[in-house]
Amino acid sequence: xxxxxxxxxxxxxxxxxxxxxxxxxxxxxxxxxxxxxxxxxxxxxxxxxxxxxxxxxxxxxxxxxxxxxxxxxxxxxxxxxxxxxxxxxxxxxxxxxxxxxxxxxxxxxxxxxxxxxxxxxxxxxxxxxxxxxxxxxxxxxxxxxxxxxxxxxxxxxxxxxxxxxxxxxxxxxxxxxxxxxxxxxxxxxxxxxxxxxxxxxxxxxxxxxxxxxxxxxxxxxxxxxxxxxxxxxxxxxxxxxxxxxxxxxxxxxxxxxxxxxxxxxxxxxxxxxxxxxxxxxxxxxxxxxxxxxxxxxxxxxxxxxxxxxxxxxxxxxxxxxxxxxxxxxxxxxxxxxxxxxxxxxxxxxxxxxxxxxxxxxxxxxxxxxxxxxxxxxxxxxxxxxxxxxxxxxxxxxxxxxxxxxxxxxxxxxxxxxxxxxxxxxxxxxxxxxxxxxxxxxxxxxxxxxxxxxxxxxxxxxxxxxxxxxxxxxxxxxxxxxxxxxxxxxxxxxxxxxx
Length: 498
Ligand SMILES: Nc1ncnc2c1ncn2[C@@H]1O[C@H](COP(=O)(O)OP(=O)(O)OP(=O)(O)O)[C@@H](O)[C@H]1O
Ligand SMILES: [Mg+2]
Fold this sequence. Notes:
Strand content: 15-25%
Number of domains: 3
Strand order of the largest sheet: 8-17-16-15-9-14-13-10-12-11
Number of helices: 15
Distance between the termini: 45 Å
Bound molecules: adenosine-5'-triphosphate, magnesium ion
Largest sheet: 10 strands, mixed
Radius of gyration: 30 Å
CATH topology of the largest domain: Rossmann fold
CATH class of the largest domain: Alpha Beta
Structural class: alpha/beta
Mean pLDDT: 91
Shape: elongated
């Protein structure tokens, strides 16, 4: 015998007829009936395959009785007092979903169906599993709920991206924090985008990592985002989008010294006008911006009435402060990438910016800067972008961040460029092209029915059902997919993250 199965824990029953290599019906011993529960790990010893132990998870423990059958009416329904204990011949069966086999050369797929009568042992002491299922490099964020097994997760699979899903309060953000602590030890860098500033910036500041936190109000915005922002805040209709876009790009290129006048922006041969003048030579100033905009509009053949409308709307809806705060944004996305590479992780606190499109733009620009880093060096970047509250950034709607996150999800793996997304819901919150690229998924009790099917659409979840999810407590997450050496769902209790 390769391993004595009872080192793992007590014997709980035998395999019944009808077992296949992936699924075995079992009968529970009388003395084990009350200790066996769904999601416990078991090993099956089949003496015809003495060189291995099959390893699986208990699903659907159910109670039976030969007389009190469904669909059969008995007198005891109306007279339960007459039903003495000796009369009830109750017993329990369950299913074991077989995930693989423990052999002398490690954990393997299981190709043999266990014979009827094979003995089933509960894994009560998960430590023993560590001897047979080990990884060269591993990260640990929690242990199996029943056996205490510290499930090793494979950090190499991070490059296939990670999703964390669960209803509010189940502990997604805490789980992500546990992941952050582990991942930075594995030679990867991380940029964490904190939607509210409460989940990451605050606790990491409290732990003395204040110099890893960057406020989003310091991050430079690209001219096309500034243009979209101006259009949105000034409540101008899309009819004016081209004018605003052209003027904003022109203004930005003038303050960066790439062009010297509006005419030059438009490629005119003659240079009638001088520089924008005023104070706006190298910064954003409302009055100067208006001048550039008006000249750009007339250059583009706008009518007087249109120019008047734009002037009135911008004057009314955009304050001087709006333009001034643009001047405080000096950190470029390229600098963020460099900081992350140097400090291992940084947290971008997105709470100072209230406009969602600014937050989205910062994520999009950072994601693009990552690609620039890769293509200028032609080497793996080994960088992860973490986006919590991902419904704001990766949904089905039109958002620039979703486009960029999708690109990483599709093409990042070769360059060690990955994303970790956390959200309450799966379907609408995360666009299809992103969620179908999530190689590993942690999930707890889910907000909406149907989300489990959604995950099951691209990961093998076996017979796990929503009933099981509904019984989970906070901090309890299933992990399935590539990082999990067993691939299929294992129920973890996430470690304490204070
Ligand atoms: N691993 C953990 N260690 C300690 N406490 C935890 C852990 N997980 C969850 N909690 C407790 O549960 C609360 C909610 O956790 P968390 O904020 O991570 O949930 P969430 O799923 O991110 O919720 P939301 O969707 O509202 O953001 C925490 O404030 C904490 O009290
Ligand atoms: Mg959260």
